[in-house]
Amino acid sequence: MKKLFLILVITSLFAACETKDSTNNLIVIVKYKTQEKKSVDAITGLKKLIEEVKKEDHFVNLRVHIDQNDNSNILLYEEWDDELYYKNQHMKTDHLQKFIVDSQEFLAGPPDITFWKVNAVYK
Fold first, then answer.
1. How far apart are CA 12 and CA 2, in angstroms?
2. Domains in the chain, ordered, with CATH?
3. What does pTM read for this prediction?
4. 56-86: burial string, b at 16+ Cβ within 10 Å, e else
5. Cβ–Cβ < 8 Å for 31, 116
6. How many C-beta atoms lie closer than 10 Å to residue 42's C-beta?
7. Which candidate, 53, 62, 108, 123, has a CA 20 to 30 Å from the CA of 76?
8. For 79-115, what is each residue's pLDDT tens digit?
9. What's the rounded Cα separation, in Å, for the pair 20 and 89?
């Protein structure tokens, strides 16, 4: 019985150490508008970019949303665990700089980027 209790206590301690408070993460909303009939090219370019972004330090997750009524509207919901990293090192990465140049072929202009913090979580 003591062994079982000890195992439960140790397991609880490790679980508590691994739990990270994500409410302090930076939420980045990026809105893109594609050129006419270039939505597929934009999604292809974004997928290639995201494969590289996922390898970056401080990346947590990213969701791509497409407007159901107008597929030329693309929204990215990004989560990062370090705001300074995102606003500095991430913005200077080779893959993002390449995307900025390449995206002129399929985006109507630069994205609208806003930054958010979690206020409350409901499940």
1. 15
2. 25-117 (3.30.70.100)
3. 0.82
4. eebbeebeeeeeeeeebebebebbbbbeebb
5. no
6. 22
7. 123
8. 999 999 999 999 999 999 999 999 999 999 999 999 9
9. 23
Q: What six digits make up the tokens of 60?
A: 């947590």
**CB < 8 Å & 24+ apart, contacts of 79-87:** 79/22, 79/25, 79/26, 79/27, 79/28, 80/25, 80/26, 80/28, 81/20, 81/22, 81/24, 81/25, 81/26, 82/26, 82/57, 82/58, 83/26, 83/115, 85/57, 85/58, 86/26, 86/28, 86/58
What are the φ/ψ torsions at residue 46 (nearest 5 degrees)? -65, -40
Q: Which residues on adjacent β-strands are paired with residue 66?
A: 74
**Residue 83 is which amino acid?**
E
